[in-house]
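User: Hi! I'm working on a homework problem where we have to compare a predicted structure to a textbook description. Could you give me the structure for the chain below?
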Amino acid sequence: MLSDLEIAQAAKLKPIQEIAEKLGILDDELELHGKFKAKVELSALERLRDRPSGKYVDVTAITPTPLGEGKTVTTIGLSQGLNHIGKNVCTCIRQPSLGPVFGIKGGAAGGGYSQVVPMEDFNLHLTGDTHAVAVTHNLCAAVLDNHLKRNNRLNIDPNTITWRRVVDMNDRWALDHIVIGLGGKGIIRESGFDVTVASEIMAILALSKSIKDMRERLGRVVVALTYDGESVTAEDMQCAGAMAVLVKDALKPNLLQTLENTPCLVHTGPFGNIAHANSSIVADMMALKLSDYVVTESGFGADLGMEKFFNIKCRTSGLVPNCVVLVASMRALKMHSGDFTVLPGKPLDKAILEENVDAVVRGCPNLEKHIENVSFYGIPSVVAINKFPEDFDSEWALAMARSIPPVVNIPVKPSTRRLNGPSSGRKINTPTTLQRSAPRAMRRPGRPVVRLARSGIVALPRFAASTTGKS
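Assistant: Happy to help. Predicted structure tokens:
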């Protein structure tokens, strides 16, 4: 089988103008960045304001291994599958950080025959949004240190400063904890660097619905406390306007395409441990007006990214999803048996890739709990088990026979997606689920809903020789 890179580089891309035209984006709403990528002007939102919204799908996962279980693969594969059966679909995903891209996890363009292309551009600089976030964040830091040096009019206590600098690279051992101001010219104090996507600016970009909204949010950024314990904001330092000017173009979503030439809006990349792990509200709002189905993705497991999708992103946007797709894998189920040592940033324990039916049995409660977590919100769910080349038939037979009781009794159906590239994702019965689901008031988490009448479980192969499901 071909590698992910070989598949991506052999892809026949269409000019981005054709992708935009198919989606319904006008020429004057497109800002080209070469032949195969573009930004979409926010004016498109105003033009489409009165158009009915499409169906909204969120892809999440059980608690993943450090390598991920293939949420992005599933997100893109589902979108391509919907397109293959004649549905008008748009994918919305996050832009990756260069930190993980050059770490053990690698890129986030999907894998095999479910990738966003051009893959190299997607994983690296794209249209420069992450760099704009870094410069905007570091401008605020520079203004803060200049303020301390020049009489400290706001009476800022240097020991309470929380606003560090950022760089989009894994350089924590050198820059995580440093001393700045040396050389006799600045205020000497301890500080450090965070990765750029951990910046509050990135989270603001992802949650803003307009330039005005973004400008107001930037002004409310808290950077330190005064000696009297009062908050000091970017507005107080009179730099919020300059920050908004620097990052304003980054609020426009980026348009790319999948291997099967379906449209994909790639926008923002907030981390999940310190932010909300979801792509931008603006991209989702735009996609919902332009297409019949929008498939987006929440980072990490359902207990992190999906819950923040509901509790933060949806409550900010006012949007309500019609369906949740919960991704699992055999290796993740085996990890949750407790038999294996799995550490972040380290390769998987080789024993986890060996046949172990008993470990799958004892790992299933993690999947069951995540299904229950989804049900808290009253949203229909579908479970997709991502099939990897190293999986064993005996483990799959168990999953098919078990049907994941006692939370819900649902069938397990294997898919041959890896061998049938053009029919990607067709076996996930999301269209049927969506046709039966109307927009509703999203429930706040509360007592579990045990019965999930419209749930389904399917198997979705990995689609390529690569064994790392990027998410």
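For your comparison, note the following. The chain has two domains: 4-128+250-461, 129-249. The first strand starts at residue 30 and ends at 32. Good luck with the assignment!
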